[in-house]
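Troubleshooting log. The previous structure file for this entry was overwritten by mistake, so regenerating from the original sequence record. Sequence copied from the archived sheet and checked twice against the printout by T.R.
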Amino acid sequence: MAASDYTESNISLVGILAESFATELELFLEFLPRLTVALLVAVAIYLFGKLVSKGVIQVLRRSSMPETYHAFFKKLIKGLALFFGIIIFLNLIGYSTLAASLVAGGGLTTVMLGFAFKDIGENFLAGFFLAFSRPFNTNDVIETGGITGQVKSIQLRHSHIRTPDGCDVFIPSAQLFTKPLHNYTLDGLRRGSFTVGIDYNDDADKAIELLKEAAKSTRGVLKSPGVGASIKGFTPDYVEIQLFFWISSKDQENSLGRVRTTLMNKCRLRLIEEGFTFSSDVSTAVDVRMKDKYDA
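Regenerated output below.
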């Protein structure tokens, strides 16, 4: 009797499970068209995002925006498309409350991360704005915050600068965005100058003409804008004459330091040939002697 009851209970349990499975299967089959449509819509949104990102990249490649920002905008557009695809998918299958929670939770998470990583977020935001109005490009010579060097690479969070002494400096985008920035190569021109001193008895006008002639014949010095020279000031021992010249900032062979060194030496030799007295020749020599304490 007990065995019979046990068998009947097993049969009834199997029947209940089979009925439940059939019910769930029927519900799934009714839900399947809705799920299929939701999946198709989500995939279509993601593919549309990929298509838009490719179009944006094509437009950016025609502009002067660095390659670094191309990848950033591509990932940003694809990420937004994926996020909206998931939200719409959840709404279509009836999980609108979960979709709303994701949107609200994403906003709250963004605020919390913004406070936790304020400096990082500030640099990313500054880099984003600089992408549309960047005042420099790769290989430009810039100065900001007392740092001068050539731009080697541009990233979203920072820019890689190499100083003349070979030091690699990574400047945050926030500094480039908020502090004054000097670009010496934006228009392809860079001005150099140096000062020379001559004796008060020498002809300053003649010295100016000699310096200008030497500059015009020096390799790397541009004819336009022209060379300029003028009396800078008077010291107790000599007259200061300052010479200005321009070079092409894109000419890597004739850098400012090289051209200035060549020009200064040429001006020195020319003034010596014309019999000018240099500032070192007119300075007062002072002989300082230390008295030995053992001297009588």
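The first strand starts at residue 141 and ends at 144. Archived copy saved in two places this time.
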